[in-house]
Design brief:
7 helices; 32% helix; elongated; alpha/beta
């Protein structure tokens, strides 16, 4: 899986520090990197000790001895301070794929983006980012007269709810509405009819569902639904690895999937 970010005739190997390497997504990233001739995993960081990988794994960033080109993070929000401290101290660009951050943590990520390159996205899938763009276009046309609801479904081990992707979709739609909407996450406590100034966001957890998102625009006598289904975690790993290669040597700033795609296609 060669990358389009290579210089013709020369492979610029991107050395990756993988945070959360012992987790399910960490393992998928490891396999994705093995298929990519433009990068390698220099070392891993994971609080849960050793593994059978052919690279060294540390329990915290403070123990790292190597100097990597970029960090890929698929771990836990609790690791953010340790990650950012290392990244800022060593000027290492960071691809942050973990979800479930508090508003205060998101602000820390944005502040870090003033000093280093930070790629931050709640979802690394090309298809999901297309869904967001299509939802924004639909909101331009239908938003003022259609009710908007978002339903997300994930496996029974996912901790955060709603998903970061659902919030990305809602935020994208909000940009296109004349009036800032209210996000409503749970209706059982409401005893009133639905307000027009709402985006309903609903989470389903069960089985081994990788990820499904439906965006519903419900109007008078008609419903428009935009949907995306993730068939495996591999697509997220591929997106993260491509983001790492893209981010290497980038100047300080906040980067996202749209920027990467624009450079890749442009």
């Amino acid at each position: 899986m060669p990358s389009r970010y290579s210089i013709k005739g020369e492979v610029k190997m991107t050395k990756i520090i993988l945070c959360g390497c012992n987790g399910k997504m960490g393992n998928v990233v490891v396999n994705s990197v093995k298929e990519n001739s433009d990068c390698e995993i220099l070392c891993g960081v994971d609080a849960f000790g050793t593994n059978s990988y052919d690279f060294k794994t540390y329990k915290s960033f403070s123990e790292i001895e190597e100097k990597g080109d970029v960090i890929i993070d698929f771990s836990n929000p609790a690791n953010l301070d340790d990650l950012l401290s290392y990244a800022l101290k060593n000027s290492v660009p960071s691809v942050i794929c973990t979800t479930g951050y508090s508003p205060e943590q998101v602000e820390k990520i944005k502040e870090a983006g003033e000093k280093i390159a930070v790629f931050y996205s709640g979802n690394m899938s090309l298809g999901v980012n297309l869904l967001i763009e299509l939802s924004k276009q639909a909101a331009k046309v239908l938003g003022s007269s259609f009710d908007i609801e978002i339903i997300e479904k994930h496996h029974n081990l996912k901790v955060d709810a709603p998903s970061g992707t659902a919030l990305m979709i809602a935020d994208g739609i909000s940009e296109e509405l004349e009036q800032e909407p209210q996000y409503v996450y749970d209706r059982h406590s409401y005893r009133r009819k639905r307000s027009k100034n709402e985006i309903g966001i609903h989470a389903v957890r069960g089985g081994t569902i990788v990820g499904e998102h439906d965006v519903i625009f419900a109007g008078h006598d008609e419903v428009v639904t935009l949907s995306h289904q993730s068939q495996s975690k591999g697509l997220f790993a591929t997106g993260a690895v491509n983001a790492a290669i893209f981010l290497k040597d980038k100047p300080a700033g906040m980067y996202n999937m749209s920027m990467m795609l624009a450079e890749k296609l442009g």
